[in-house]
Write a structure and sequence with these properties.
It contains seven helices and seven strands, in the order ββααββαβαββααα. With about 240 residues, it is an alpha+beta fold. The protein is elongated. The N and C termini lie far apart (about 75 Å).
Length: about 240
């Protein structure tokens, strides 16, 4: 009989329990709904790590990190979402070049598995925290930055091929939800910026007795002259108007 993966109903009541290979599509569909229900990218990331420990077979902890290459090819890591303090310790932002091949391989491979941290030269930090297995899956990648979801377990050789396949399917949903959340955030910011510039233009029309086109042109010229973003200049004008100065 396939191994059964039990999901905690209290945290994600809509997530069904499933056997590996059965009802996985339904589980991922519900997970996708949870991910797309978030209001911003950070919320998507937080939801993703909580879902990961429910969906990935054997996962006990999960975190999402951003790995960046510096100008001299050194790499640093910062954790942007985590399930608990164990993950924050495991992904504490130290230079990752000192931990090959586990993190270095992620630049060229979409998935990296650590079978047993006690037997891996790059796994000493994880072993010290009681974490024996790790499964890392890329969410985003370009020449200088990786966004990686990593699941951890306290026993060795936990993450097999099935866990890897499920992980890749899950991270595909996470990536889509993250892109959608980023687009929503950008759209919201654009609308806020438009409203802010509109308010600043109205204030200039009143102060300088000019029409809308003239006020906007004046705002643009001031932005260029002071080398400040139009949005920031508009906010300054609106804030000063609000204080009566």
């Amino acid at each position: 009989m396939p191994k059964r993966f039990v999901l905690t109903a209290s945290e994600f009541p809509d997530l069904p329990r499933f056997y590996a290979g059965l009802d996985l599509a339904e589980t991922l569909t519900v997970a996708s709904q949870q991910l797309h229900g978030t209001i911003n990218p950070q919320g998507t990331l937080r939801t993703a790590v909580r879902l990961a420990v429910h969906i990935l077979p054997g996962a006990e902890h999960a975190g999402i990190s951003v790995i960046e290459r510096g100008p001299r090819a050194e790499s640093t890591r910062r954790t942007v979402a985590w399930t608990d303090d164990v993950v924050r310790s495991a992904e504490s932002g130290h230079a990752v070049d000192a931990q090959p091949p586990y993190w270095a391989d992620l630049w060229t491979a979409p998935v990296v598995r650590m079978e047993d941290s006690e037997a891996d030269d790059g796994g000493r930090a994880l072993s010290a925290l009681g974490l024996r297995s790790a499964l890392s899956l890329r969410l985003r990648a370009d020449k200088r930055r990786l966004t990686v979801l990593t699941a951890y377990a306290r026993k060795p050789r936990v993450f097999d091929e099935m866990a890897t396949r499920i992980g890749r399917l899950f991270t595909a949903h996470v990536s889509l939800a993250l892109d959608a959340a980023s687009e929503r955030e950008q759209l919201t910011e654009a609308m806020r910026t438009r409203d802010l510039i509109g308010q600043a233009t109205g204030i200039l029309m009143e102060r300088l007795d000019m029409d809308a086109a003239e006020a906007f042109e004046s705002l643009v010229r001031a932005s260029q002259r002071e080398n400040i973003k139009l949005r920031d200049l508009a906010r300054r004008i609106v804030d000063s108007h609000g204080t009566g100065s």
